[in-house]
Model the fold of this input.
Amino acid sequence: MPIDPYILLLLGTVGLAALFPARGPAADVASGASTAAVALLFFLYGARLSTREALDGLRHWRLHVTVLACTFLVFPLLGIAARGLVPVILTHPLYQGLLFLTLVPSTVQSSIAFTSMARGNVPAAICAGSFSSLVGIVATPLLAASLLGGSGGGFSADSLLKIVLQLLVPFLAGQILRRWIGGFVTRHKQVLGLVDRGSILLVVYTAFSVGVVQGIWHQVSPARLGGLVVVEAVILAVMLLLTWYGGKALRFGRADRIAIQFAGSKKSLAAGLPMASVLFGAQAALAVLPLMLFHQMQLIVCAVIAKRRARDAAAEVSAPQPAAATRTAVGTGTRSG
Done:
């Protein structure tokens, strides 16, 4: 089973925050650095996203609408339905994190990777992931403000202003400056990728430090954590089945259905973590826990499915065509007679 090395780094960062949390002046420095890191992340997202490629992908609008509906409509409906599990299976803070998980945009890189592995429509997966990330900049905070309300993270006019300043403004700045810095960003993709991941690790350390200082981890028992894993497994299974058979009902071809399944059933850790730090503030530690668990779960399950889809495609290609074989046999028999 594949284990994302980055998950190990995230877990190591959580352990570091548990042992050596930022306190006092150090906490203020970490909070300021985390805010700057979030702004940098979304600036780089804007600088990397090609608006022209996204507009070109509109030609396959049915597929993209389907993925967006799965990400920002069906997923949230499942999150709302999970409210009935409180307080028997989930605590209220864990449920808030689970609901936030269902509001996060889809992934880009892993959707592309699994679609390619399964021999699906890779260009469609690229555009679908890009559209989801773009829509999520606005949709995720608005959905969170609507569904979580004041109990989620203290949503207010001040919170919305922070969202605009820390997420939307840097993203738009990256889009505007892409004309001049796009080539640099493309040439130094690997280095900037390390900046991305390092920034997210800083966000995680800051959020979990606050949680440790406030004693928030005493609210999570092993039984509650196990219940959360089971609930997330059910949600993932529902979305994988719905995207695959729903795509068939909508008469998409096999390659398109693969792209829909992998882009429509996943959630982005890279986008969700910094958003949670802005939206939840001091409560971000418990809010990001469901997302971190779901991220690893989706990687493991989707890797298995992608390999199976690839084997099925290879079998279809190598299998003999019955009709063609029959025609050949008839033609041979006629000539020999």
Notes: The first helix runs from residue 5 to 19. Confidence is low (pLDDT under 50) at residues 324-337.
